[in-house]
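Here is my example:
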Amino acid sequence: MRSTSAAEPVDLAALRAHLERLAARGQTATYQEVAQALGLRPPHTIHRLTLALEELLAADAAAGRPLLAAVVVSRSRGGLPAPGFFARLRALGLYAGADAGAPAAARHRELLAEVFARHRASGTEGGEG
C-alpha cells in the first residue's frame, strides 16, 4: 500500500478493507503488522492506528456490525487487544470487565468469533452487509 506522511490520518476505508481481508481468512494481526500493511510511518504510528481502530469500533457498534477492530491484537498482551480496546468497549456499554485476564480473553474470543463468522460467511473481502 502507499506510504502516508506523519500528518495524514489513517485511511479508515483502507483499514476496514485490510481488516475484512484478515477476518475472511480467520486471522488476527498485531498493531505493528497492520501499521506496516497500511504503509504508516512515524511519528506516532501506533497511536494514530489506535485512534482509527477506536473510530472503526464505534462505527461498527453503532451500526450493529461485528467489531472488526477485534482482529488487531498486541503480541505483548498474549494476543489480546490493547487496554484502550476494552476501555472503548466499556464506554460503549459492550463490556464491563477488566483489560486483561480471563474475562477479557473470553470477551475477545466472542468478538472474534462474531467477526470471523460474519466475514467468512459473506465471503467478502472489502464488502460489508
Q: What stands out?
A: The radius of gyration is 14 Å.
